[in-house]
Amino acid sequence: MLRELLEPWCAAGVTGALRILDPPGGVVYIADGRIAYAECPVASGLERLLTASGRLPAEAWRAAVNAGRAQHRIGPELVDGGLVSQPELEALGVMALYDAAFFLFDLVVGTQFEHRARHPVGHLRTLDLRVVCQEVDRRKRLLADAWPDAAIDTAAVLPQRRLRSQCVALTALQWEVVANADRRRSPVDLARLLGRDTFSVMLEVRRMARSGLVEPGRPGGSAAAESVATVRARAAAGLPATPEAERVGRHAQPAPEPEPLPEPEPVDTSLPPPVLPHRDVRHQPAAEFLVPVGMAAEPRVSEQILVRLLAGLGAL
To answer: d(Cα 190, Cα 196) in Å, to the nearest integer?
Structure first.
């Protein structure tokens, strides 16, 4: 598994990138033996968390990329321009790291290590490999506890047309999911569309399924959903992500960049959102803030909270 392949590199305290050669593709960046960042085509990366969520204009991100990519300074360009704060950037980086690690760490894949490679965003919060593995395992338990059938993650989300109860309370993320479910998009697709981390969307869909608010439809037909379903099926069978016959000689070749998945369809704002029974939640206690799950929908989180959370991560 990928987590086992990372152990010797982290133990040696190296800096570089472990590139995944097999589907779904991706890369894990290591800085001085600690996990610095991870990305995977089926997870929500830093760019998507900032731009698709509406936190940052896409033009601003592209300008930062053009100015700072070659010098690994995309992040500092955003911070120096006053577009995001350093704590917010680091918190989103941790969120993206965990999201990619969730999909990658338990896969049997071919890899290639690139010494001294760094992510073009620049310095982000680094984490111990053990901490990342523990978070991946925690997320797997949360999903299993919410709804045991993983097929729901890649099936179309179908809001129930008639509910059993008179009053329904939804979280902000649950409402976004229901409002944008078009009976074709899977949780994986909705996460990409909304600029949310994929794990959080999958978790909330499972919770709503358990509550009888949504049900799984046909398997999603998008490239992202199909990729997740295929890789999971091979992992469950104990098979590598790519058959061995297709991998002969792969390690002698330069590691290819993973092909980007197609962009999700834009939200049709001309259609009114579905009307669901609801209750007044204005006087309910504020939802507990957890990093990294679900933070992208609250772009103006108190910087003091972010600093404390990041300090806690650093102490692990």
So the answer is: 8
